[in-house]
Amino acid sequence: MSRGASSIKSVKSHLVKGEWEQVIKICQQEISLDPSAVDFYLYLAKAYVGQGNINAAISSYQKTLGTTIEQSEVYAELGLLWSKQKKLDRAVWHYQQALALRPDWAELQYNLGVVLHQSNDWNAAIIAYNQAIEIKPDYGAAYFNLGVLYDQKGELEIAIASYEQVIVVQPNFVRAYSNLGSTYARQKEYDLAIAIFQKGIHLDPTWATLHNNLGQVYWLNNEPGLAISSFENAIVLEPKMALAHHNLGKLWQQQGNYPQAIECYRRVIALEPANILAYSHCSDAEQKLGNLPAVLDLWRKIIKIQPDFVTVYCQRLLASEPDDLLAIAKKSCARFLQALLDEKDKIAYHYLGQTYEEMGDVLFEFRGLTQAEIYYQKALQLHPEKADLYLKLGNCLAKQQRWDGAIAIYQTGLNLQPKYPQICFQLGKILEQTQDAEQAIDCYESVLNQKMQNPQQWENLPRLFAREHNLSLLPEQVYHHTQDWVRDCQLEDFDYVQIVWSDVSPPINTIRGIRQPEALNILPPGKTAYSDCGGVNCNSCMTKLMEHFKPLQIGKNAYQCSLEQPAPIQSRLPFVVTIPQGRSWIAPQKNSWIICDALAVITPDNYLLGDLSRYYPWFLPECPYQERNEHSIFELESIPPVEKIDGKVALLSGLAGHVYYHWMFDILPRIELIQRSQIELKDIDCFVVNSLSKPYQKETLELLNIPSYKILESDRHCHIQAEELIVPSFPGYMDWIPPGTMEFLRQTFIPLVNLTEINIGKKIYISRAKSKNRQIINESEVDRLLTERGFETVFLEEMSVLEQVAIFVNAEVIVAPHGSGLTNLVFCSPHTQVVELFSPNYQRTDYWTISQHLQLQHYYLVGENFECLPLRNLMYQNSLTEDILVNIASLELILERILRDGNARS
Fold this sequence. Notes:
Blueprint (H helix, E strand, L loop, with lengths): L2 H15 L2 H14 L4 H14 L2 H9 L8 H14 L3 H14 L4 H13 L3 H14 L4 H14 L2 H14 L4 H13 L3 H14 L4 H13 L3 H14 L4 H13 L3 H14 L4 H13 L3 H14 L2 H11 L6 H17 L3 H21 L3 H14 L4 H13 L3 H14 L4 H13 L3 H12 L6 H5 L8 H4 L5 E3 L2 H7 L6 E4 L19 E2 L19 H10 L3 E4 L2 E3 L14 E6 L2 E4 L11 E5 L4 E3 L4 E2 L27 E9 L8 H17 L9 E4 L5 H9 L7 E3 L5 E10 L10 H11 L13 E4 L12 H10 L3 E3 L6 H10 L2 E5 L15 E6 L9 H7 L2 E6 L6 H7 L12 H18 L1
Parallel strand pairs: 1-9, 11-12, 11-14, 12-13, 15-16, 15-17, 17-18, 18-19
Antiparallel strand pairs: 1-3, 2-6, 4-5, 5-19, 6-14, 7-8, 7-14, 8-10
InterPro entries: Glyco_transf_61_cat, O-mannosyl-transferase_TMTC, Sel1-like, TPR-like_helical_dom_sf, TPR_rpt
Pfam families: Glyco_transf_61 (PF04577), TPR_1 (PF00515), TPR_11 (PF13414), TPR_19 (PF14559), TPR_8 (PF13181)
Organism: Waterburya agarophytonicola KI4
């Protein structure tokens, strides 16, 4: 036996025993004697792998490339090692080299699929898994990973079929039962899920995960007793299973057993010190028990784990000069968060209470009475000695007509501060209303016997009951369709013209049957008969709309919209009606966050016209409650006197008409509707719009040849009656842009731009860094990545409308956070690539309709979530204002896909 053969025999013996040092020693000796002895590099690499020295192993394998050693196996081993190093691109390349040599290697196709899956290149991963299955039809692991991938993509039917195939080819693959049951649960097929989990438990009764999953489905199926038993079984089998402890804690919390819930959450935190949700849920339970020191401690730890949201929020707000109530509340919140981080708990308590009170004030003014009540209660938990809070909470309950609760709160405030004049007055008003005259008189006398101080407190005191004379101004019945009123009205000189607005998605032009007016419901403020509908923010309706676009998940939080077919949304033909002595009330803007949230068009015979009147939050297409018998005009404390206007008055104001999106899509197109109704604009004496406070409002009206002297701002003239009120209907549903509107804007503004004067490139990033909300938290990282890719950053608020039009006409790739800036997509050329950035709690289809109609390619990325709901709710008054934390890897994935698509087209 030669020396080399003897050494190889010895090396193999040591490898079997795991004696890595001996293997390395022998191989290095042989290689030093004969550098061409490539077999020893192979064994040396395996020994380094055994030791965990991956870099040395890679180096050794690389020495065997181009030698007589089986090259496909060398590439395969290198692919595996690079994947362990998380160098996924290198791993993919080496696996592909191996497969080029041995394309029928099923396990290698599977490994390639795993790495592509980890790289978020999901379509390529699907191809690799399917090729592995084609080579090896009983490959259970490949079917399983396909199921996982389709699960992540939200394609649940294909995921279910994949998991079922695993069970067919490999009946004892227990993880398939776990995933299959979980997918059935996501489809709300709870009985099927329970049956699948029970089959899995029969196969392996010791696997805690199955018991935990079964518990979750029992919980969803309203069987809390069985759920608790299942979670406890999981914990017995696996005492360190944090998920089971967490689920048990959430269930105890739902049952109102806060001490038990806290105990479970504390165990989760001990097992997983970075589990933000556990801290968050634990803080909720501690707050229910009034343990505020524990709450602050938990919040502080959350911020240390995930500091980005809070750090950027504080930096921005602490440097700001607040100009309204909301800005003041947000700055107080930032001061609280900063004190919390600095461990100055006394200061933190002060600002937390102040934040709760100010947010209560904001929501009370916004008519969010239920939420305002919660904030005032939390403020009282911190400052039970503040009589002002009892006044505010009492007012909040009284506005909801919860008289007994309001009386009790007012009286508690008077126990703290007897004869508090505003509380006495409000209590007297309620007692007077509830027929307790004697006690009401006592309250009023208490007020009269005191010296008047701080008149502003009386000016700001909300009126609990509407003035009687206001009620006579309000309509009592509603015609849901103006066409019905036209049919029935006895007036002369009215006019009604329907307008053909688009050839796409034929409208519903007729109303079936004879429709009579219906009585209007007058409910307490904040109450609605449609409580299961969130209006334009309705999750159920928005989810249905999103499904029309079939978003394809292409990576982590990264999606591409499928835009081949328009969504089957039908709307009625728009129209223009002329109403002699018609009346309108339009809610004026109060500040930067309470803009126009309601408008009412009222006929001279005192009917509300439902299809011309709107109020926030209104509704989305396909909402089941499109004919509403209520209106927020009835929540007003008082209505200004009617202002009579001579001549022909065109009503253009709309909800949120102060916002660029709504100005362009809801206001301006109605001017075109008027022209198509054969009414000459020059014959109109006055045009009513929300405001002329923004440069783009003045610019666009000038471009449409409407002189400023003919403009009447409804912010200043909110309740008018016109000699002839000309009212164009809205051209489509709110937050759903009809094709006719897009074509009008394109034909109106694109011919006015000079493309030769554009000094911005074809790849643009629209920054919201100068906006008040929905900013990008990691803006510098995003900007750096995009700049490297040739993007230019633009601030649209600094540009004229025509400059914006020119930029978008010229653009080939646009990246932008969701916001009004994307209104300008309506001016894009076909095949423009769009990347829309969302927060995880606010995703919308507003701009997808534009991309579909104009044949753009629309991608979107969902940002990272700030998991602490209590802090998130404190920082942001609703999901619309949440800042966005962009996952850079996901953004890179989309940009690479755009580059590939662009190369393929060219």
